[in-house]
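From: lab user (bench 3)
To: helpdesk
Subject: output format question, protein + S-adenosyl-L-homocysteine

Hello, I'm new to running complex predictions and I'm not sure whether the block I got back is the full result or only part of it. Here's what I submitted:
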Amino acid sequence: MVNGFSISGTAADRKTMLHDILDEVELTRYEIGKAALDERVLAAMAKVPRERFVGAYDRYRAFANGPLPIGYGQTISQPYIVALMSDLLEPRPDSIVLEVGTGSGYQSAVLAELVQQVYSIEIIGALASSANERLQELGYGNVTVRHGDGYHGWPEHAPFDGIIVTAAAPHIPPPLVEQLKPGGRLVIPVGEPGGVQQLMLVEKRGDGSVSSRSILMVAFVPLTRSQP
Ligand code: SAH
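Helpdesk reply: Thanks, we reran it on our side. This is the complete output you should expect:
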């Protein structure tokens, strides 16, 4: 404790966070079409030290159910959204997953607890290197971070069982759909940057056909593009 604030995530902080997630799942159950999230996802949320992914001044509220600043005008999503997006991917221990928008590395760490390998791309160089350092320090050896524009995916490691985009895109990037395995799932906020978006779930079936549906209204920072 420093000045009365808890500076690391206590068991109580994490328990409160999980309760908040479950409450919000209950509130949105008709929109998201489910009353519960995967137990493995909840266990991963309970395990990852969220306080290590935010600045020192925000540690006391790291487990509150809201987004937090991570510098460069970017934010780490609220725990409920991280849990929901992870659940929508239907992660398996042998999955290979791509994330677009590494940010702090928090979502990558949650996925790293759930799947075999996470590839994550971040367009802001300074965030890519600090997230990479943090993830290695915390022992997440199954996350590989790269600096670049994730609109194009990561063809060298494709196809993926799941792709998660944590920035708002004006449309679903075709390269990401191409880089999904048959049976794979893409979770992405689509809509006006700066406004609200639809969190979309895109599924590629065994025969290669693609279907998509909207899950929930969300508000993400924009997917930006590198200049050609
Ligand atoms: N998943 C992050 C939240 C990131 S906020 C976390 O858990 O902390 C969205 C991130 O997407 C920002 O860091 C932003 O710089 C990044 N981003 C925006 N456009 C991008 C693009 N085209 N390719 C890769 N990253 C992008």
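A quick orientation on your result: The pocket of S-adenosyl-L-homocysteine is lined by residues 70, 74-77, 100-101, 103-104, 106-107, 121-124, 127, 149-151, 166-167, 221, 223-225 (CB under 6 Å). Let us know if anything else is unclear.
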